[in-house]
Model the fold of this input.
Amino acid sequence: MATSQTPPTPQEEKEELSHGCKELLSSLPTTNSWQHRLYQYQGFWYSEGFLLGTIACQRHFQAHDNDLLLATIPKAGTTWLKALAFAIMNRGCYPYPQHPLLSNNPHKLVPFLEMDYYTNKQTPDLECIGSPRFFSTHAPYTSLPQSIKDSNCRIIYLCRNPRDVFISLWHFSNKMRPETQSPISLEDAFDLFCAGISWRGPFWDHVLGYWKASLKSSEKVMFLNYENLKREPLVLLKRLAEFIGCPFTTEEDREGVLHDILRLCSFENLSNLDVNKTGKTHMGKDQYKFENTHFFRRGEVGDSSNYLTTQMIERLDRITEEKLKCYGLTFPISI
Ligand code: A3P
Done:
């Protein structure tokens, strides 16, 4: 055990963390229903790695006023948002053929705070990242570290209609399942999703947390949705750049920089790059290995209508209306 004079070694840190966490994990509600074990913590469902990282962040992360955080629920378009934000912030830094997005998956360029930095480590060195620091998270708003809420750091939240999030998640989860497990049926997955049991679900509570925060402090929390980003990419790209603090100049607009960024980050371009066709992304110290190709499926609005029955759509829409409409939040489903 470390004393107050001696900082803990990485091994001691890991042992302390795993001891404390084992106790916590064993006290939480769990389910194996999505093929991977999920834990319910502060009202939301997590896989083990993301949960331990979230708790470590809550305990130790200190936000800076100029930090930028990209927040999403899984399958809402995280990969796209990361690419766009990275391209906006780093425009003009690289000649096009050497642009990092051409040879790196966006998740490598904008790591998850709780997964890439805080899994297996209580106090990662975040000062070496440079300034402004740029992170992503799947954590619900209510479970963000207090220092994020207290600081002036900015948050961009991207949401997506629940029908498409669900179908995207169902496909992704089946691709990610251990070889020994059979696929989860659409019907079983749907019942779980509607009951709020899904990665960082309940979906509606996740969205609502950031929606309320954006209504309270629009200068701090920008709320976007996937469907509008598809429909009006130029308008929203400009707003994103303004919010991030690096608006496009008239000259950049005239030179076609915005169109270049949209093309670079488009589903068609990213999904056809070698790195995204054959590469893998490791998260949480190799705890999770994702085939990059799994982050790119159809990239469309409304693909869920190819899978969901009319009854399923009605059920999902009813829940969405009950939970969100009174807060003025609705989803454009078609474009
Ligand atoms: P679909 O499964 O509906 O195709 P996340 O990045 O949060 O994991 O979300 C994945 C979803 O975003 C997938 O949706 C994926 O195809 C889509 N996606 C990935 N990159 C995209 C891009 N550049 N533009 C639009 N959608 C994209």
Notes: The beta strands are 30-31, 38-41, 44-46, 68-72, 134-137, 154-159, 221-225, 280-283, 288-291. The chain has a mean pLDDT of 91. The chain has one domain: 29-327. The CA atoms of residues 124 and 241 lie 29 Å apart.
